[in-house]
Design goal:
The protein has about 140 residues and is mainly α. Helix content is about 75%, strand content about 5%. The chain has one domain. The chain is elongated, with a radius of gyration of 16 Å.
C-alpha cells in the first residue's frame, strides 16, 4: 500500500519536522561534545566521549533516514532504542536529589515521547512513501 495524496504531504511535513529535529539533536552532540561528555561521565556512562559521539551519529543518521526515506523502518527502530537507553541512563529522575527530579523527568519524558514517534515512523516505513528516496521501503 502506498501513502498518497494529502496523506503523503502530511507525512512528508512530519518527516521533515521530526527527522530534522532528530538530526539537529545529533549535531548538538558534536557541537557540545565536551559538555555532554562531562555529564555522561558524571552519570557513570562508560567511555563517555565515545558514547556522546556514537549517540550523536545515531541521531543524525536516523533523522536523515527519516527525512529522506532511506531505510526509515531501521532508522526509526535504532533511534527509538537509542533514546530509550539515553532516557534510562542519563535521565534517571528516580535516583537524583529532589532539586534535580523535575529536570531529569522532563528529559526522560522527552526522550520517551520521541522514541514513541520514532516507532510510529518505523511502522509507516513498511509502506511506500511519496516524496522519498525510496531505499529500504517495502
Amino acid at each position: 500500500m502506498a501513502v498518497t495524496g494529502t496523506a503523503a504531504v502530511v507525512l512528508l511535513l512530519g518527516r521533515l519536522l521530526f527527522g530534522g529535529v532528530l538530526a539537529f539533536m545529533g549535531l548538538n552532540h558534536f557541537m557540545q561534545t565536551e559538555q555532554l561528555s562531562e555529564y555522561a561521565e558524571y552519570k557513570g556512562v562508560p567511555a563517555p566521549k565515545l558514547s556522546v559521539l556514537a549517540s550523536g551519529a545515531v541521531l543524525v543518521l536516523g533523522g536523515l533516514g527519516i527525512v529522506l526515506g532511506v531505510f526509515p523502518t531501521l532508522a526509526g527502530i535504532v533511534v527509538a532504542a537509542a533514546l530509550v537507553v539515553m532516557a534510562v541512563t542519563m535521565h534517571d529522575f528516580w535516583a537524583v536529589p529532589e532539586e534535580q527530579k523535575q529536570d531529569e523527568m522532563t528529559g526522560f519524558l522527552k526522550n520517551t515521547v520521541i522514541a514513541g514517534g520514532a516507532l510510529a515512523i518505523a511502522a509507516l516505513g513498511w509502506q511506500n512513501w511519496a516524496y522519498a528516496v525510496d531505499v529500504g521501503l517495502f
